[in-house]
Amino acid sequence: MTMLLVHLLVDGIVTGCSIGLVAATFAYFYSATGTFHVAHAGIYTFCCYVAWYCIGLDIPFVPALLIAMIVGALLGMMIQGLLYAKLERLKATPLVMLIGSIGVLTVLQNVSAILFSPNIIQFDLPWRTEYLEFGPILLSIPQLLIVILCPLLFLALQVFSSRTALGRQIRAVASNPELAQITHLRPQRMFLYAIAISSALVAVPGTLVGIDQAMQPYTSLIILLTAVVAVIAGGIGSLAGAFLMSIVLSIIQSVSVLFVSGRWSLGVVFAIFILFILLRPEGLVKRKFKREL
Amino acid sequence: MRKLGIGGFVTVGLMGFAVGGAAQAADLTIGALLPLTGPAAPIGIEEQNGVQFAIDQFNENGGLDGTPVEVVFDDSQGKPDQGVLAFNRMADLGDVPVMLTAYSSISLAIAPLGERREILIVNPAAQSDSLADASSYLVNTIPLVGDEAHVLANYASENLGKSAAIIYENAAAGVSGRDSFKKFFEAAGGEVIADEPVEFGQTNYRASLLKVAAAKPDFVYIAITQSQAAMADQIGQVPSFPLGIGNTFSSPFFGYPSTEGWYQTGIQSGYPSDELVTKFKEKFDVDDMGFFAREYYNSTNLILTLAQSLVEDGKELTGKAMREALFETGTFDSDVAKLEFTTNTASRPVEILQYQGDERVVITTGSVAE
């Protein structure tokens, strides 16, 4: 029983790290723009397919991942420039923006299926199923990469947001777009940077999870749902809250199979979400439901 | 413009009717409702290839009384609601008298519609036990999961141990597999000590695998219809994962280090001639004419045989006439399979196969009756 608990904890932490970066990047763009960017899930999957395609062309893993990140950034900028910016100019309500984003997600899923494959894909990488032993725990190389890279990239995002000039400019626009405009910070340009950064970063968990487990064009929505729960329960506007809450929720989801059938594990996550909404609406990290970085 | 008199109108009308009637007798459009997108698409596309190949071969050999047979494909996305919409599209716009189907939940959803509209539905691969009597217009050219589970449960209780765990897909085929295996295994003196569902489309199975392994059963019966490769990889990471067994839809588990020595039942399914297999591989650029391609090829040929016999007898190509012809003929023999219909479900032998290196070795062949 104890060993099983340890295994499930480790599985939860690994899953939590990948979802954590999805949640943090989703929160980053939401905080910057106020757009509920559901299409983030589509970018997550699309980038995985790009990396898979590149590796199929015998491009080594690291360049393939970098290409996927660049494609992710460009795709995000396209979505912002061609859809969100135009909708904003038309004074679209948040609901219209959300529906537009769902539309983009559906298109991306279908484009992934048409351009690459509707199949469940597995990467042709020899190290994909190699394991390292840590006592009784076996971790695959992709799992190790997830545990190392995702928290590192999350920290890098934190540092970028709080310590760099561009990061501060994006925060300034997020806090007060009108004032930022007066000071010659162009909000739409900042939004482009924000979506490029979050889309490039989400390519990393997308690709690594694809290598670890397999990927198909339609699986990412459930990952985004958990990430969004983590964003809200972690405290909207708090990147750290979103990342930590993702790990907590993933551990709960994983360990819950000890007590309930696996079919209820996602239900457990959403039950916790409802409890958070009722008992601590400001989330784990107190931000009072306002868009902040 | 010259006007036709009443006599001329009637004559032209009758000629038109006669021409239309004759054309109608040999005109056949077959519907194929397959999951062409979504998690089940890999299987759906293999099935589509099998159907298309059978139609192409038939038309190359002269078609139906000189008229090429047509096929209309529609996408169920692996979802019952989309399946019903696609069924109605093909019934209303395509006016098809016969339709091939795939996946249990979709076949179950359209079964009553087939009955109501007298469209014969041919199921070459879905295996939920509920399909046995879902509709008098639904025929299954493959034994159902209960038949396979029965043979497998008897074999497992005698040879593999008395305690089992079950991992099943929480959808029609998986639930049916779980229920059937549990019933027959317990009847054979075995005990199911754990069962764990997984979701259709899921790719992370680690928590479920760890839980099942911790129960320490003699073996695990696995009933999932997709993502077997991902599960096989993750099983390799779980220390002391027990031996796995499964039904026909466990076939993709073959060929992984973690599944060496596993067992699965298989419906006896042969290959068409070498020449046809080569042609198939070239046409669709694939390495093999897989199980689903062969089964859909064979079932499409069954439909074409029925249509041919109706045309030869001067009968109309309706779903009702095809259904009657199917049960009148009863037995259909081909290189792929010998199908015998005494009920809506064809009876065929079931093999127990074991994964031994790069081969699936037939350990024994049985049937429910045995």
Automatic annotation (TrEMBL), chain A:
Keywords: Amino-acid transport, Cell membrane, Membrane, Transmembrane, Transmembrane helix, Transport. One of its GO terms (biological process) is amino acid transport. The chain crosses the membrane at residues 6-29, 36-55, 61-83, 95-117, 137-160, 191-211, 217-236, 266-285. GO terms for molecular function: transmembrane transporter activity. GO terms for cellular component: plasma membrane. Its main location: membrane. Coiled coil: none annotated. The keyword Transmembrane helix applies. InterPro entries: ABC_transp_permease, BCAA_transport_permease. It is a multi-pass membrane protein. It is found in: Cell membrane. The keyword Membrane applies. Belongs to the binding-protein-dependent transport system permease family. LivHM subfamily. This is Branched-chain amino acid ABC transporter permease. It comes from Flavimaribacter sediminis.
Automatic annotation (TrEMBL), chain B:
Residues 1-25 form the signal peptide. It comes from the Bacteria. Pfam families: Peripla_BP_6 (PF13458). This is ABC transporter substrate-binding protein. Keywords: Amino-acid transport, Signal, Transport. The keyword Cell division does not apply. Belongs to the leucine-binding protein family. Residues 28-356 form the Leucine-binding protein domain. InterPro entries: BCAA_transport (IPR051010), Leu-bd (IPR028081), Peripla_BP_I (IPR028082). GO terms for biological process: amino acid transport. PANTHER family: LEUCINE-SPECIFIC-BINDING PROTEIN, PERIPLASMIC BINDING PROTEIN OF ABC TRANSPORTER FOR NATURAL AMINO ACIDS.
